[in-house]
Every structure is written in C-alpha cells, then in structure tokens.
Amino acid sequence: MTEQAASQLSGQRTLLIGTRRSQLATTQSGHVQAGITAQGWEAQLHIVHTPGDASQASQIPVAQIGVGVFTETLRNALAAKECDVAVHSFKDLPTAPDKRFRIVVPKRVDPREVLVSVDNKELGDLPEGAKVGTSAPRRVSQLRAVRPDLDILPLRGNIDSRMGRVGNDLDAVILARAGLERVGQLDRAAESLDPHVLMPAPAQGALAVEVRADDEEAWQAVLPLEHLPSHVMAAAERAVLATLEAGCSAPVAAHSEWSGSDYSELTVFAGVFGMDGSKQLVDSVKVTFDAGLGREKPSLEQRDHYLKRAFEAGSSLGSALLDAGASALVAEAR
C-alpha cells in the first residue's frame, strides 16, 4: 500500500487503542497513540478492565492467577473488535504465535532492572538481612545468588504502590527500569543493575503493538512504529523462553546486545536459575545479519527473514540450556 493510499484510509475511522487502566499501561498506550496520530490517523485510548487489575489490589501472586492474565483480556477485546489496536509489555505475551494478530515492536527502552531503596543504597550496600520486595522467580533466584543474606518478600501492585513500601515495611524493591522511565520516575532509582549480574526478563523494555491479522487499515497505521532491531532482539530472547517451554513466571532470563551501530551482529545471553540461588546455567550465542536490517524501511519479506533468523538463534540457545539441564531448574520453580 502506498503512503498516499494509507493517507486516504486514515480519514475513514478512529482507531481504538485497547489498554489497561494503570498509569504505566495508559502511558505506554499514549506513546503508541502519538505515533499513530503522527502518521495522520485518528486514534484514542479505550480502557479494557483485566482480572489482573483486581488481583494486584488483593496481592494475589501471578502464579495463582495464571500466566498472561494481563494480556488475554486485551487480546479477546481486540479479537471481538472492541478495539482496533492492543498495547502490551512484550514480556507478558505468551510465546506461542497467535495467527489472529500481527505485531510490531517500537524502539525498545533500556531493559535493565533497577533498585529503589531507602537512602538510595545500591544493592551491594544494603545492610545484611535487608527486606527486598519482588515476586518474580527470575529476580528472586538471581538475588539469592548475589546476596543470599537478603530477606526477599512478595511484591505486587502498580509502580507507585510498590515504591511506596520502601521505607515502610521494605528496605528496597526491584523494578523494571522501563516502567519508571515511561512514567517519568527514573530519578527514584538508586541503581540500574548490570544485566550480567541480574539478567532481565526476555523482551523486557519492549512493547508489542497488536492488530487483527485481517485489519489492513490498522496494520498500515502501526507499521511505521516498527523498530526492527528492537523486534529482532525481543524475538531472539523470547525464542529462548519458548524452547524451554517456560512461562513468564519461570526463573528464566535473557538479554541481548548489538555490536557496533550497524546492527550486523547480535549476542544473545540467557540464564536459568535455581530458586535457592545455588545453581545457575548461563550461555550465549551470536548471530550475524546483513546490512539490510539497519535500513529504515526493509520490505516485509526481509523483516520476516530477520525475525526468523533471530528466532532460530534464540531457539538454539534454549536447546543448549536444555542440554545442560535447564528443565530440572524450571521444574523446581513450579
């Protein structure tokens, strides 16, 4: 479809962007809305209530509610045409492809974890036995490896409620840097943690913008938001998770880094961790791409080729971890 044709279509409808009600979700969706309207389309946010919102208030662990609790309702609303676009944190989506939808990934923000603490103490400076809040098995297992003395306690809720516990019943909390950055509260972070010390979740910091597979207008509206190097990183990291057959609540982490500025070589790191901190399996793989990946507008065929190569690289890394005994560590956490 030509830009002129897309421009003509853009005046025919207002695209509804499905989002949860939380500050982080509406802020993320607002960025997507701005990107869509910058292309000449009309778009507005549409609030979709998810069961996960109520569970946060009652502090029910994600493992008890079910993986994908924050995304399934949004996807159902999109499939039912209640909205035209759905915005997710990519790390929360199931790894199995869903043929009902097409996805683009805007430019990823910093995927690292951050520590928010009393007196802005860094992780290594927290007092012995400090109370640290996090519920993610991936974070718990890695924290126990580097600071086995810490008292790690469950933590749910939105960003403000989590940070609000610091200085009350907790000495520190671990959060995703991406969330703080998007809501303008990055100054609350005492430290951004080295991903080789505390490796983030696969695809952390990346958004997934979904439209229905048969909705060509919505696809043309979101396609310019695609940042292919970010999508390739996220695809490789998520392929590790898919190969391990582990959900987003498993003690599995992944991180990837481009070498240089031409997006020609990607190194993907992944780890699986024992919940008591005593065991860890960490490995990496490198994958090379031709210069076309860095082009501003590669063809859809080229895009699919690069994403396939990324998936294959991540899958091979996941297989290497399985060969090293990762299944036992994943099963341990269930």
Automatic annotation (TrEMBL):
Enzyme Commission (EC) number: 2.5.1.61
InterPro entries (alphabetical): HemC (IPR000860), Porphobilin_deaminase_cofac_BS (IPR022419), Porphobilin_deaminase_N (IPR022417), Porphobilinogen_deaminase_C (IPR022418), Porphobilinogen_deaminase_C_sf (IPR036803)
Cofactor annotation: dipyrromethane
A molecular function (GO) term: hydroxymethylbilane synthase activity
Alphabetized PROSITE patterns for the sequence: PORPHOBILINOGEN_DEAM (PS00533)
Record GO cellular component, one term: cytoplasm
Transmembrane region(s): none
Domain of life: Bacteria
Record-linked SUPFAM superfamilies: Periplasmic binding protein-like II (SSF53850), Porphobilinogen deaminase (hydroxymethylbilane synthase), C-terminal domain (SSF54782)
Catalytic activity: 4 porphobilinogen + H2O = hydroxymethylbilane + 4 NH4(+)
UniProt GO BP: heme biosynthetic process
Annotated keywords: Porphyrin biosynthesis, Transferase
Porphobilinogen deaminase N-terminal domain: residues covered: 16-218
EC class: transferase
All copies of domain Porphobilinogen deaminase C-terminal, residue ranges: 234-289
Subunit structure: Monomer.
Family: Belongs to the HMBS family.
Role summary: Tetrapolymerization of the monopyrrole PBG into the hydroxymethylbilane pre-uroporphyrinogen in several discrete steps.
The protein's name: Hydroxymethylbilane synthase
Species the sequence originates in: Corynebacterium auriscanis
Lineage summary: Bacteria, Bacillati, Actinomycetota, Actinomycetes, Mycobacteriales
